[in-house]
Amino acid sequence: MNESLDERYMRRALELAGRAAEAGEVPVGAVLVGDGEVLGEGWNRVVAESDPSAHAEMVALRAAARRQDNYRLPGCTLYVSLEPCCMCSGAIIHARLQRVVYAAADPKTGAAGSVFDVLTSTRHNHAPEVQGGLLAEASGVMLKDFFKARRSQLQGMQQ
Hints:
The protein is of the alpha/beta class. 43% of the residues lie in helices and 18% in strands. The chain has helices at residues 5-22, 46-49, 56-68, 86-95, 136-158; strands spanning 29-34, 37-43, 77-82, 99-104, 129-132. A 5-stranded mixed beta sheet has the order 2-1-3-4-5. The chain is globular. The termini are far apart. The relative contact order is 0.15.
């Protein structure tokens, strides 16, 4: 199989999303790449860290910024298994990422055009290139399965 670099990094983001699911977190994973090198990775850790900002994207951005010793990450691409929310989109803009590639659209809190237009707005002083839908089906299945299992657990607890 001759998969593209984008597909390879998105598959890694999906692996990281699986780690989040195993830990009982919403299954979202992110990989931040610069100059062909992984600079940061993350998966949702909101529950584990008791931190509402510990989204996969934020974890990956923090790791990359520490590694680069710079809060600006120009020329970098973020691969994330779910469309970024408003908070993550703001951080992406401030970090000056070149590209954002996401798998599944988020019809509830997506900020790359699904619900909000934070990443795609021309009102900011920086706008990354945005590509959605890469391996969206795999991400969508993982998210649906996670929430189906969670609903089952809740129903079982209520009986």
